[in-house]
Write a structure and sequence with these properties.
Largest sheet: 5 strands, antiparallel
Structural class: alpha+beta
Shape: globular
CATH superfamily of the largest domain: Immunoglobulins
Number of strands: 9
Radius of gyration: 33 Å
Length: 312
């Protein structure tokens, strides 16, 4: 007599197989017509935008009341090599205007003093805002009262600071959406001018960069880009070192040429990286185990004898 297949085990196996197909269908993302943009980790050097072009762009941002973006653009122009004294004076002037407008008086004073180091006779024209002219006059008086710091003692020569180098590389060429990106690096600062290291980051390639202060000690820094900002198609960021006056003195990347890390959509992941592959595989394995147990039970069964006693 052939034994019957245990109904409960068979139903369980078939249910798991059906669920595997359903879950795989749900896990598979819809196909997209457009191609996913992939950005390679890199950036950090701008070959196109000149210092004068950056200053002009920053001026337009200031006129449009986009003060933070103007400061970010000017910071990149300030540390770019090859700028003339006239360009640097214009950069410091616009930085001071932005800082005064935002109420950041310490940073504005540092920017104004940097101008006087380059040109002691500098003065804003009378057509300029009285608010700006009064601030510059006050900064110049304070600078002179302190002995004109930044100038060689008893001379008109400008103190030459050694260049600052930020050593850092993106930790990966690409990451999955929602990943916390951990960053670290070091600062080569021969004159010990750096007091703080800042991170600027944004999702995508447009808009204002968000800013956060990195942990900095013994010439090394570390921090992270939060998971909420890591969304397709990419993350852009740069690292900035500032001095005690709050002015930028070193950059790795900048707002015009940031470092980039690609954040591809899930549909662009390899088949073995996608969670939709492993869910049905796991269910299929489970179903196979159940079916194996079922048929193993069938092959191993023998006929049994049932005794019935009838008593009157």
């Amino acid at each position: 007599m052939r034994p019957r297949l245990p109904a409960a085990l068979l139903v369980s196996a078939l249910s798991l197989a059906t669920l595997s197909v359903a879950v795989e269908s749900e896990a598979r993302p819809p196909r997209r017509n457009q191609k996913t943009r992939i950005a390679q980790a890199g950036g950090g050097t701008s070959k196109g935008a000149s210092v004068s072009a950056l200053v002009l762009k920053a001026r337009e941002m200031f006129d449009d009341q986009r003060y933070e973006e103007s400061i970010q653009t000017l910071s990149g122009a300030l540390v770019r090599p090859g700028s003339t004294n006239a360009e640097r004076i214009e950069i410091y002037k616009l930085l001071a205007f932005n800082y005064i407008t935002l109420g950041k008086n310490d940073e504005a004073d540092s920017a104004a003093r940097a101008i006087f180091v380059l040109d002691e006779n500098f003065a804003l024209p009378k057509t300029e805002s009285p608010r700006f002219r009064e601030f510059f006059d006050k900064s110049k008086k304070g600078w002179e009262d302190e002995g004109k710091p930044g100038k060689e003692a008893g001379s008109t020569a400008v103190v030459t600071d050694k260049p600052i180098t930020i050593k850092h590389a993106p930790p990966a060429a690409q990451v999955s959406p929602g990943t916390v990106i951990k960053l670290e690096g070091s600062v080569d600062d021969p004159d010990v001018r750096v007091t703080k290291v800042e991170l600027y980051f944004r999702s995508g390639a447009k808009g204002k960069f968000q800013q956060k202060t990195l942990a900095f000690a013994m010439g090394s820094f570390r921090g992270e880009i939060p998971a909420a900002s890591v969304v397709p198609p990419l993350v852009e960021y740069y690292v900035q070192a500032v001095d005690k006056g709050g002015l930028p003195v070193g950059l790795r990347g900048d707002s015009e040429a940031p470092l980039r890390i690609a954040v591809p959509e899930e549909s662009s992941l390899m088949w073995y990286e996608h969670p939709g592959f492993w869910v049905p595989v796991g269910l299929a394995v489970t179903a196979g185990v159940v079916l194996g147990a079922v048929f193993g039970t069938m092959s191993g069964t023998t006929e049994s004898t049932v005794r019935v006693s009838v008593r009157e």
